[in-house]
Amino acid sequence: MVDTPPRKRVRTRSLAQAKAQGTKIVALTAYDAPTAAIFDEAGIDVLLVGDSAANVVLGQPTTLSITLDQMIMLTRAVSSTVQTALVVADLPFGSYEADNATAVASAVRLMKEGGAHAVKLEGGTRMAERIRAITDAGIPVVAHIGYTPQAEHGLGGHVVQGRRGQDAALLDDARAVEAAGAFAVVIEMVPADVASELTAALRIPTIGIGGGAGCDGQILVWQDAFGWNRGRVPSFVRQYANLGEQLLDAAAKYADDVRRGHFPSESESFSR
Q1: pLDDT (tens digit, 9 = 90+) per residue, 206-259?
Q2: Bridge-based pairing state of the strands 86-90 and 118-122
Q3: Is 188 an active-site residue?
Q4: What is the pLDDT of residues 76-118, one digit of tens each?
Q5: Where does 3-methyl-2-oxobutanoate bind (predicted)?
Q6: What DSSP element (H or E) covers 142?
Q7: What distance in Å separates the CA atoms of residue 2 and residue 105, rounded to the nearest whole number?
């Protein structure tokens, strides 16, 4: 039997090399130690501790309510167990918009207290100054353009971006975040041909979520991809499992065994 060599830790430069070599980047969200450990073992390149935790962990209707302290707690859970994946943490709404000093201070906390390897923030041209300030502080930044969930109310809901002549503005955003020092950019809910054009125009890797196959990599919210959420699933998601139904079935069997006196058995009980 041939031993498989251990995977090297994924670094920011690893993503740049992947783009140069035409190797697709694989990313998923993670919010706790057990799932992060599993995804890390599965060979996922990037684990994003997303502010989507507000939705899929805390049950909130938008991402706006999650706090920096909560993001630090979730990031620490993920970073403490990961061996090889690059851990990226979202800067939550309200933690970076006001000024450069606030943005840098928030990013420092995610790195120092949360153990993140990089941070992500939403916005293109309007956030270039924040990206530059954070990268100047020695903190790697992933940008996020297209549909940006923190701006959901301003955008009028879950609306695809880059249609009806908006592609030029998206290209401006993409070039602005690259020039500001972002090492990668998430492109969300953008027509596939537009996302492909952005990918070709940039030196930094693009990671799509609802951006088509032309991006340099892909990311999904794991609860959507693996059927942990039992509600509406975005149209751009492919479900690889139905864990929610499996858990429901297991919980129902457990409840039935307890009510019928079938659990615990003698072997599951202690004796004197």
Answers
A1: 999 999 999 999 999 999 999 998 878 999 999 999 999 999 999 999 999 999
A2: parallel
A3: yes
A4: 999 999 999 999 999 999 999 999 999 999 999 999 999 999 9
A5: 51-52, 90, 120
A6: strand 141-146
A7: 47
Q: Would the annotation count 120 as a binding residue?
A: yes
Cβ neighbours of residue 10 under 8 Å, at least 6 residues apart? 45, 46, 84, 85, 86
Q: Are strands 141-146 and 217-220 parallel, antiparallel or unpaired?
A: unpaired
**Active-site annotation holder among 41, 97, 152, 188:** 188
Pairwise CA distance, residues 228 & 48, whole Å? 17
3 is in an annotated binding site: no
Q: Is 178 annotated as a binding residue?
A: no
Phi/psi of residue 25, nearest 5 degrees: -95, 135
- What pTM was estimated for this model as a whole? 0.95
Q: Identify which of 20, 42, 21, 40 has the alpha carbon closest to the alpha carbon of residue 30.
A: 40
